[in-house]
Fold these 4 entries.
Entry 1:
Amino acid sequence: MRSTAYVTTRPRYGVLDVVGLLFRELLLMVVVFLLIFALGAAAVFTLKKTYTAQGAVFAGVGQEYVYQPRVGTAERGQAPQGDEVANSEAAILSSGQVRQRVIDALGPQVILGRAPKGAPEKSKAAASKVLGSSLQVATAPGSAVIRVSYKADNPQQAARILNSVIDQYLAYRREVFQDKTPAIASQRLAFEEDLNAADRAYEQFLTSNDIGDFAAAKATLAATYQTTFADRMATQSQLNQTSQRLSTLVALQASTPAEVALQQDLNISAQDQVLQLRTERQQLLSRYQPDAQPVKDIEARIAQLQAYVASGTAVGPKEVRTGPNPVWTELETTRINTQADRDALAARLAALDRQLSDIRSRQA
């Protein structure tokens, strides 16, 4: 006996088959589309319109966050970053105390947009809840600007509530940064009196010393003092150098003669006599023999004179003329100029010392 098995296969549809099937259910598709469109349109047309009022508050660094001296040149305190101040002010702006002040100032009916029902406490609680959900406070990293916005069904209502929030924030922050403790208040008043007295003394000081800008005058005096002090150091160095040069010139001049021999005539009469005797010997040789007695006599005299000249005592100064020494004269001229330079530098140094003393007294 043979058994037979049957396998069911899914039909394969082409693009035209799919389009045909869709057109078969066209009525159902239209009905579903109209139903969804009607629900969406009903939701859109039934929703209430909301209007957003926007504002911005700049949170700068003031006396509340950093110490800024009113008198003198004391250093300022470390200032926080702009976004840190903005975050601190944003916390005050979105605090519950500010919302409560807005409710007290405007009334719950303005915030709720209708007449309150029930007990006043419930109305205020409902207004506080609406105000908290509709008010948006945002800050950006690195920015000192706080963005504030409020959503309401009426644009005038949104703007009015937002302005009231900002006004109440400004009033509340003044109270936050103001200590009402009696002891601290009296101490603050004493400090303010001292500061006012210091201000008056400061203004009087500027007026009596003809100073318009104290910081600029102080910086100018400091720069002038540095320049004058550097000039004094250079002048002192030049004065020491000139004084040492003058001492050296005086020592050299003391060891240099003031007069020297300018010209001298030598005594050469012995050489002249030798030449004269030689001339006479030549004349005698023309009349006598070389071994004649007159010739021998004159030769003996020539030998004696030559021996005298050879001894070195025959030649000496005959006439000497003296005059001023040029080296001593140059040293004297240089000494006079150097002494004049030294006196000028000493006078300049004294003037610089007086200027430094005046600058120091004015700085004090």
Entry 2:
Amino acid sequence: MRVLFAGLSEKSHLYCMVPLAWALTAAGHEVRMASTPALTDVITGTGLAAAPVGRDHGVHEAMAQARGSQDEEFANWSRLGPGEVDWPSLRSRYEISVPYGFALYNDPVIDDTAALAQSWKPHLVVCDPLAYAGAIAARVSGAVDVRLLWSADVYGRARRTYVDLMSQVPPDERVDPLADWLDKRGAPFGVSCDEELINGHYTIDTLPPSLRLPSALQELSMRYVPYNGAAVWWDWLREAPERPRVCVTFGRSNAEAYGGDYVSVPEVLGALAGLDIEVVAALPPEQRAALGDIPANARAVEGVALDTLLPSCSAIIHHGGWGTYSTALVHAVPQLALSTKVADLEWRGQSLERAGAGIFAHHSEVTADLVLRHTRQILDDPGFASAARRLGDESAAMPSPRDMVATLEQLVAER
């Protein structure tokens, strides 16, 4: 098969696609990763073949100028199910999100991605759920269109809610910014919008089933396999720690896109200074260099992949990002998520609480006392570790990316 991956031009989103892309490559299929020129070196660094398309977006510049936007109501997609939102509110969400979110990411690459699909004719297109350029490319080439989620499927649920609410209002009030935009952008390629274009033929979900949103879409389960880029299994990670080890990390995305983390690493380390634990702060090089003095029970490290660190940890304190959250799930590590409300972060944090495997707090609530209290709670109550193991076992029972290859081959053959 010829397989085209179409993701958003974000490194963290790309990394979610790498294990499946490599499984398809190892099975003998031709795989190309379509993204903006800015991600070319990142893609080739994974060993996969990059297909640069379009031009780089300006989303990060807009984000840095609006740090508070992560907590604006329009950015929170966690409470948009049936009965949770009314028509005016959800319509307003789309009226803002289409031009200032979806289009900013997709408009720079739609034409080139569609043209690439017309000429190369992939049999399968694997899309980021917000990479509508990939959906248009799949339609243009007649390919099977598969969404690969990097979140709980809050966007799919919101779309179903939107269609249902729209059917209940008078015809002259029925506006659809998403469909109108996709109609306009797909028109040069003979593509018009319908719900299949928006939702794809199939959706691959890597969340354990007990943490998923209900869905009417055709879902495929695949185990999350962590990919952290370049990784070294350092010698100090090869022996069990003498005390409970707690990882503290806030990733790179907020610092790179929004100009800084939303929670202070020194404040968190200070809050944990009196505990008889080993704290490992996994930081980007620039954050580690700026850290200054740290408590005696802590070490700050750079260049440590979470996939190599978390198997030795009793807990993790983090920002709620998908890769960190999912890596902790597969390694059965209880989590304290100190997060914003953008995308699905609130829903995922609260679902982790409901499962008993972690605690969610909004970053505005974070104090040294809160961090200390919740960390003690997670470490002292064995129920958190037990629930995390249940989720880890649930993840391990899901099909691997290698297993998914056979499923995708069959779906393409059937179509």
Entry 3:
Amino acid sequence: MKDYPIEIDDYLSGNMSISEQQAFEERLRTDAALAQEFKLQKEMFAMYGNESWAEGDEDILKTDQAKQLQSFFKSDEASDIKATINEVITENRTSVNSRRFWFIGIAASIAVLLTVSLFVFKDKNYEELYASFIHLDEIPSLVTRGEDAHKLLEEAQLLFEAQKYEEATQSFSEYHQKEATINPLSYIYNGIAYIELGEFDRALVQFKRLEDSNTLQAKKAKWYRALVFLKQKNKTKLKQTLQTILDNNSNYKYKEAQELLDMID
């Protein structure tokens, strides 16, 4: 069997000299079998390589499916999969013949493709789930309208309600810096605003502050943390967080946590 897979991998990985690259590219124009395998392996290489996803193709990147894939590839779950694939290939490349390495590459790529397919198609309703579980109407108002002492907090809530999330987070941050006594509900509003902006780490910081507030609202932190992972489509951390809620049936949103877990399993 020809060493097409290893040659292609060396080319894609940049392990060829300039003269070797030129010779390889010339063969691509004349060897139909090589060209066919090159196309396949290039696609697989892009799946578990470090290249930016569909870099330079702005039309593709604007599609909903592309946004879902980009979000998935940035998740911890995708990073773990890529690391495992690269580890398996690295361990086997020097110790097995080219045929076996080729099949390892195919198997690894199939694993990625299956995972992505399951993520996109099985979990395509994550946005709908988030919308159905967020229940903004259940969050009490932050202030009584017109109270001078809470003008900044009132402004932040009005910005939030107008879906001006960037401005809302700025107002909440100013409020948190100026006030000695913080209304814990502001952490919920601010955290949700960060979720809507796609700034998930900052959202988690807000819900950690909520958890540490030692108030009656603190018990809600786990649920809102779960909503971060739901919006992020991070299934692993979502399931872990829901399980912590289900450890005690007196926990906030226990019933909803069980329902959501059943939906994503």
Entry 4:
Amino acid sequence: MGMTIVVTDSTPTGQQTARLLLAEVPSPITLRELIRFRVREEVARRNARTTARRNWESAADTAVRAFSRNGFFVFVGDRQVDDLDEPLSLAEADEVSFVRLVPLVGG
């Protein structure tokens, strides 16, 4: 049984550009798994509005590589997480913030 968490996207200056709810997120979850989970949901939502079918796994791989190259940063609450394989014990009160220097999916 997963939980529902709030995920936000922000610019490096702190401006929030997107806010979404992710449901059925397992806990604990590694940051790598969380990034992949989030990309899968984002691609699924995008595909629901378009006839184009994208392989979410390749998009998730791209996002993980972008994180490894400091393309974006992830904060759980006020704590920056920089280890892809660190197990995260999330609470529903936690807000996960993706501070993007580049888009995760698409343009």
